[in-house]
Every structure is written in structure tokens, then in C-alpha cells.
Amino acid sequence: METIQQSTGSIAVLLREHAFRHLFIEELGWDHLGNTLYITVHNRSYELLPVAQKRGLAVFQCELDRLELRDRRVLRGIQRIVAKSAHENLVIYTDPGRSRQVWQWARTIEDGRALFHREHPFVSHRPPEEFLRRLLSLRVSIEAEETVSLVQVSRSVADSFDRTADERLFFRNPRYLYESQRLAEALAIGGVEAMHRFVLFHDGLALWMARRFEDTGIDADDLAQIARVGLIQAATRYDPTRDTAFSTYAFHWLRQALQRYIPSHYLAASMRLEQFWRFFRLKQRADRRFWKDGERSVRMGFERAMECDTLVGPYSLDIERVWNTSSYQDSQAGMEKVRAVPDTRPIPESETVRKEESYIIMQAIDELGPVDARIIRDRFGFDGQEQTLKDLGITLGLTRERVRQREFAALKRLGKVLPDRLHLPAPLEAPLTDDQNGQTTGSLDSSATG
Predict the structure, then answer these.
(1) pLDDT at 221 > cutoff 90
(2) 350-422 CATH pick, 3.40.47.10, 3.30.457.10, 1.10.10.10, 3.30.565.10
(3) Which of 1.20.120.1810, 3.40.50.720, 3.30.460.80, 3.20.20.140 is the CATH number of 168-266?
(4) How far is 348 from 48, CA to CA, in rounded Å?
(5) Around 356, how many Cα atoms within 13 Å sit in the side-chain half-sphere?
(6) How far is Cα 298 from Cα 317, in angstroms, rounded to an integer?
(7) Where are the beta strands (DSSP E) in 402-445?
(8) Given 3-state DSSP classes, what are the helix, strand and coil percentages for the chain, each rounded to the nearest 5?
(9) Rounded CA gap, 206 and 228, in Å?
(10) Rounded Cα–Cα distance for residues 157 and 48 (Å)
């Protein structure tokens, strides 16, 4: 017999592949739906593909671009038209890249004059575990096929997608509030076991709050863990003698924990990406210097090249500057100081490693897609001179802000794959920083010195 974990696992795979028709018909036991629905909203035409139906409750799929997918006015406008054909329905909105989904449940109330709807956005490759379990509750078995009614299907879908049901449970359900108060009084007495039972009982409240921030693009499990941290903080500070339910008290702690985490998450990601690219660009600079020195040595002779290199500047602050070739050749003390600096320049075999690393990086950039790959190449000067956001925007027909957003998203994707492919530590620690004049301070290694 298939376990719940196996069932949710198969549902997650189908969601990642956007195989919605297979999901509802083969996995959940729903029936085939009729023809495609064509509608027009705000002078734009949309195509709603039939997915499935059960006792008249219809499921459609509609593809939108990334901006429309986040615009609730567009989703609401589409739903108003769809509701005229199906009073209660599910519409699954997807983007062309199959990276995000928004599940919209809606029904008409008050004799068809009012529209009630709820949206559930998430990233396709990582659907929330709670959402998978809710989808599993929509399964209609063969035994129940003959007896299931529209009312039962409607109630099952509403329980899965109506978030107000959760609100009624956590904030207005008498039995829930009574049990919460009883556990809070036991918690006031003290004990680790009492705290464990109290937090476990209110775990659903933390998950409910975490789902409210799913459209931020952060992993659902990370949001759930942060919400649980806020739940524990609320539990340690809650006073059951005051006339306030714990769910009401904890609401602000949970929201504050999540709202503080989200900016720090993106800031940390941005800093890690900046450190990574600084590391890579300095490595490129060091490699270019090595091969430039090598070519010069072949052309001029090694001793003459070393002499010129010394005339240009010292290897370290402890080495005296030599102003003529005779003093360089005759000064044994100067030579001893030069020898004191270890020669850590890469051996010729490193050219193979450098080429392999460059190939890996360029291959990862190519995987971003033509537009994002060009943004990264031009911004970091892979194909020549570095370009500004404004110049790139003019070339690509995008705004400066849109180019910046796409650059950040592309760097984030590269930051996830390149450390493993290049065998770099993650998160990367930048061994040097840039000063206000754009000069590099510190050193990456001795090959970058000078």
C-alpha cells in the first residue's frame, strides 16, 4: 500500500513537471473536462486549458508572464470571467519558464453577486509540504466514486484552499482556544515537556503564518523554521493570566520574525554573490598577470624581465626599490631580500586548470539563457569592456532596474551551482575588499601581488 510520503512525493514530481492533467485524473481520480476556454480581460486574450473536473467543479490552467503572475488585479479579472462559466473552480496559473505557480480557488456567493477567491503561490521545483498534503486530500477513491457529491467535493476543495478556515480555527474555534489555554496554564508551571507539548500544539499556527510569505521566493521549509523560532519566542513570553488568546499574541511575534528574516536573507545572498564574483575576477586578474609575465620573460629573457619587474616596484613593503641594473646585480643584500619573498607563481600546468575553470564558468553562464547570459558577460566584461546597467538596458530594450533584477537573479543561480563545480568553499569568504577609490587592498595570494 502506498504511504502518504510516497503519494506526496509523486504529486511533487508532477507539480515540477506541470503535469496537472495527469495529476488530477491519474493520481486524484478526477474526470476529464471539456473544451478550452477563451476569455478577454483588459483587452488581452487568455487561453484556459481544461485540466479536470469532479461533479462540476472545474480545474483550468492558464499561462501568464512573470509580471502578470504577480499582479492580483490580473488574476482577479480572469477569475471574474471564469466564474461565469464555473461557479466554483480552480485555476492554475503558470509562467512560460515553468518556474512558478499560483493556484487560485474561487466560488461565487450571495446568489452569484460576490466572488470569493484565495491564491496560493509557490516555486514549482519546491512545492510546500503542507500544500502537497492538501492536494492529497482531494483524492477520490474508486469506492467513493459512486457516492461522492458536488457538496462533498466543494467542501474538500474549500478545506484545502480556503485560508479563512485556518483563521477560524486558530482565532475563533472554541475547542482550539480552550486547549491552547489549558496547555498555556501547564506551561506557566514550568517544565521542558510542557513547552514541547505547547509548541507542538501550535505548530500549525506557525506553518499558517509561513505560508503567508510564500510569494517572497524563499524556500518554504526555511520560512517554516523561522516561524517556529518566532513561535518559541512567543511561548516563552506569553502570560496566560492576561485576557489574550495565545494565537492573537503569537501572531505579531511570528510576523515580526518572518519580516526580519526576509531582508537579511536577500542581503546575505547578495553579499555572498558579491564575494564570489570578487574572488573570481581577482583570480582572472592574477592569471592574466602570470601569463603576461611569462610572455615577457620569453621575449626579453628571464633575468631581464625580473630586472624590469623589480624596477617597476617592490614585491613587498620590506624590499628596497632598486633604481638601476648595476645596483640590482651588485647588491647582495637586495638579492637576499628578493629571495626572501617566496615565488608562488603558478606552474605551466595551471593553464590547463585555468582553461577548465573558464569553460565551467562559461558553460554555467550559457545555461542561464540568452538574455541573462549576455547581461552577465557584458556586466563583468567577459567579451570585452564592462557595460553599465543603463547601456545594457538600451541594448536589450529593458529598463535599468529590470536589468539589475535579472543580473541579481542570474548571479544567485550561478552562486548556487559554481561553488560545487569549481570545488570552492561555500559560502565564499572574500580575502580582500575594495576601497572607495576602487583599488584592491589585501591579497588573494602572492600571484596577485604587485
Answers:
(1) no
(2) 1.10.10.10
(3) 1.20.120.1810
(4) 60
(5) 8
(6) 28
(7) none
(8) 60, 10, 30
(9) 6
(10) 20
The whole-number pLDDT of residue 101 equals 92
273 vs 275: CA distance, rounded Å: 5
Q: Which has the closest alpha carbon to 135: 269, 4, 307?
A: 4
Question: Using CB atoms within 10 A of its CB, is residue 106 exposed (0-12), middle (13-18) or buried (19+)?
Answer: buried
What is the pLDDT confidence band of residue 35, given thresholds at 50, 70 and 90? confident
Grid look-up 547570459 returns: 373
Tell me which of 306 and 220 has the higher pLDDT: 220
Tell me phi and psi for residue 5, to 5 degrees.
-65, -40
Beta strand 57-63 with 88-94 is parallel
Structure confidence at residue 390 (pLDDT)? 83
Residues making up the chain, counted from first to last: 450
Closest CA to 202 of 183, 189, 218: 183
Min mean pLDDT across 37-46, 77-86, 214-223 is at 214-223
**CA 189, CA 200: separation in Å to the nearest integer?**
17
Residue 257 identity? A
Tracing cell 477563451 back to the chain, one arrives at 38
Cα 58 to the center of its chain, rounded Å: 31
Three-class SS state of 109: strand
Q: What is the rounded average pLDDT of the residues 236-240?
A: 89
> How is the chain split into domains, by residue range?
1-164, 168-266, 350-422
Give the three-state DSSP class for 54.
strand
Mean pLDDT for all residues in the chain: 75
- Percent of the chain with pLDDT strictly greater than 90: 17
Cell numbers describing residue 158 = 474549500
Residue pair 54/140 in contact by the 8 Å Cβ criterion: yes
Structure letter (DSSP) for residue 434? B
* Burial group, residue 436, by CB count within 10 angstroms (0-12, 13-18, 19+): exposed
Give the pLDDT score at 338.
41
